[in-house]
Design a protein that fits this description.
Strand content: 15-25%
CATH superfamily of the largest domain: Ribonuclease H-like superfamily/Ribonuclease H
CATH architecture of the largest domain: 2-Layer Sandwich
CATH topology of the largest domain: Nucleotidyltransferase, domain 5
Strand order of the largest sheet: 3-2-1-4-7
Number of helices: 18
Distance between the termini: 112 Å
Number of domains: 4
Number of strands: 14
Largest sheet: 5 strands, mixed
CATH class of the largest domain: Alpha Beta
Length: about 500
């Protein structure tokens, strides 16, 4: 009602002997109003819609059991074509069907908190922000941190609701306030609560470590119960109207600079409707001394997640792939991400540390199984050293294999050396000498000689040059396009 209307009825009631301390039952008040203010009782009866709406009261009652008043009005209009307005429909329901209206939930009484005892936090959608650099529109969210005693607040704008922004916003709030409350009340955002449960919630590991560093208690609300943190919920509309709407921002950094100034100069200096005090002044004089001091060491912002080690001994985290010791293949590991490092944990034990990279693959050969890293460890220099120990014939065969297209022929050189494990160094040396005699020291040739036992046959001292077949391993210089006569 309008203030003048309320004043009219109050003054008329006082003239009839009603005082502020007067008490009466509902029936007595109804009789009093019917006697002294009949126009208020008969107002709906004089409405032109009273008779028509009375014909549908049974339908209205049935619908009010399962729907809100607005929905019932909408369906009644669609069904009957009545032109009754929503406000008239509401007045008729309150007057004629008060018992059919859904009962409002009884608010839960929350005791007043002591200074420095509690803070309430939430993320709220502000709207779309047009980036002046490229004209694109981005969704922007506000992290709102409100102290329950003084109502002093901190606001930080972000473009994504993720673990990194959740943790970073808490750190920024504590730095802004210069202290830490005893308890932080939050909803069940994934950055803070992995699995909601009123008795045993599963908290995000990174948020738990943040709380341990700053020594505050994490207190999740009940799932889908925003009324459990009314002090921050009430500020969402205020932040959206007073700070966000009608302003132009050049960048995200500009937003947060303006938000800090707004928290201090506008929100902090207003007279709060409940405390009747200026939040900033109230915080400095009454709550700041009760806040816990900031820890001596700064918090290193880290995000925790999980990753499964693939069969190739690698795990993918934040768009990049990192090698893990092969004995952890198939395991689910906890991952700690900082700006510069990626740390893998199995339980509380550190398994592997890598320098963080935005994308690509990072492999430590020591993490791979021995059979996987053999090719990388057995370099051409290693092959030549091993071949020299097995004999002059083996050394010459390996040298010729690696002389041209070294990396391509590296596996052949490794294969020739591996034949010594099965046939012994002496037979391998003899087989390599025989293969060299035919100008073909390839792996397949040496293996065939050993399998057929041809390594025991004597090698001709002066072989017939016309029978030699130059190996393709010798390179293009071994195959001139023109003979010595100049003919093709």
């Amino acid at each position: 009602m309008d203030r003048k209307t309320v004043r009219k009825y109050v003054e008329a009631a006082k003239a009839r002997g009603v005082e502020r301390s007067t008490s009466a039952t509902r029936e007595q008040w109804v009789a009093f109003v019917r006697e002294h203010f009949p126009e208020a009782v008969d107002r709906m009866a004089r409405s032109p819609w009273a008779g028509e709406l009375a014909a549908y009261e049974d339908f209205i009652r049935e619908q009010l059991v399962i729907n809100q008043v607005t929905t019932v009005w909408q369906r009644l209009v669609e069904r009957t074509g009545l032109g009754v307005s929503l406000s008239t429909f509401r007045r008729h329901v309150r007057s004629a069907l008060p018992d059919a209206l859904p009962q409002k939930p009884v608010p839960v009484w929350r005791p007043e908190v002591q200074p420095g005892e509690e803070a309430q936090v939430d993320f709220a959608h502000m709207g779309l922000w047009p980036d002046p650099r490229n004209g694109k529109r981005h969704r922007v969210w506000a992290f709102i941190f409100v102290l329950s005693f003084s109502r002093h607040m901190f606001v930080r704008l972000v473009r994504r609701i993720d673990k990194e922004n959740w943790l970073g916003s808490h750190v920024a709030a504590f730095d802004f306030l210069g202290g830490v409350p005893q308890r932080v009340l939050l909803d069940n955002l994934k950055g803070g609560v992995v699995k909601p449960d009123i008795y045993d919630p599963k908290l995000n590991q990174g948020y738990e470590r943040l709380a341990a560093h700053y020594a505050f208690l994490i207190d999740p609300c009940r799932a889908a119960r925003p009324t459990d943190k009314p002090r921050v919920e009430r500020q969402v509309r205020y932040v959206r109207d007073s700070f966000w709407r009608g302003r132009t921002f050049l960048s995200l950094d500009h937003m947060n600079t303006e938000a800090r100034s707004w928290c201090l100069q506008t929100a902090g200096c207003r007279i709060h409707g409940t405390t009747r005090r200026k939040p900033l002044e109230f915080y400095e004089t009454a709550e700041r001394p009760a806040m816990r001091e900031l820890p001596p060491t700064p918090w290193e912002l880290a995000v925790w997640t999980t990753a499964k080690v693939a069969p190739d001994s690698h795990a993918q985290v934040a768009g990049a792939i990192y090698s893990i010791p092969f004995r952890y293949r198939g395991d689910q590991l906890n991952v700690r991400l900082t700006k510069t490092r990626v740390e893998f944990f199995r339980g509380d034990s550190l398994v592997k540390t890598h320098s963080r990279r935005p994308r690509g693959r990072q492999t430590d050969p020591g993490d791979l199984p021995p059979d996987r890293i053999a090719f990388y460890e057995r370099t051409p220099q290693w092959c030549l050293r091993q071949a020299k120990e097995k004999g002059a014939g083996v050394f010459e065969a390996v040298r010729q294999l690696l002389a041209v297209n070294t990396l391509t022929n590296l596996r052949q050189a490794q294969g020739v050396l591996r034949l010594g494990d099965a046939y012994g160094p002496s037979r391998l040396d003899a087989a390599c000498r025989r293969a060299l005699g035919f100008g073909d020291p390839r792996y397949r040739t040496v293996k065939n000689i050993l399998e057929r036992g041809l390594d025991t046959l004597a090698v001709a001292e002066d072989p017939d040059e016309s029978r030699l077949v130059p190996a393709h391993l010798r390179g293009k210089d071994a195959f001139p396009l023109f003979s010595s006569t100049g003919k093709e």
